[in-house]
Amino acid sequence: MPTEEERVCCRQTPSNCLSTLPDFDLIVLDPLVLMVARRYRQDVLAAGEDDDFNRSNRHAGYRQFILWQHGHLGAGNRRVIPSCCTWRIRDTYPDSFGQYRGFVGGRLG
């Protein structure tokens, strides 16, 4: 990961790594779950659909992971996703140019 802040481990044994759990596949990577999450978010925010399927699913996957592990955080409150999980999401829904923004801290920290 490009920054020290993003070099975070899930602190599990390799056999229990969060990115290898069946729940991770269902909650964070499943395209149908992500479609429902995206549609719900678009409904609430009155936002349009993103034309880039992978980017849209990648960002929905990040949000799903945070919701699964930390619950609703509120505006400006951010958490770093463990790098093992970030790469699993990126490998499943890659950027066509391999360019990723990385963690952006919120207004509150």
Automatic annotation (TrEMBL):
Source organism (scientific name): Magallana gigas
GO molecular-function terms, A-Z: ATP binding; monoatomic ion channel activity; purinergic nucleotide receptor activity
Question: Which ranges carry the P2X purinoreceptor 7 intracellular domain?
Answer: 5-103
- Please name the InterPro entries in this protein's record: P2RX7_C (IPR046815), P2X7_purinoceptor (IPR003050)
Q: What is the lineage of its organism?
A: Eukaryota, Metazoa, Spiralia, Lophotrochozoa, Mollusca
Naming one, the record's GO cellular component terms include: membrane
Put simply, this protein is called: P2X purinoreceptor 7 intracellular domain-containing protein
Where, by residue number, does the polypeptide cross the bilayer? none
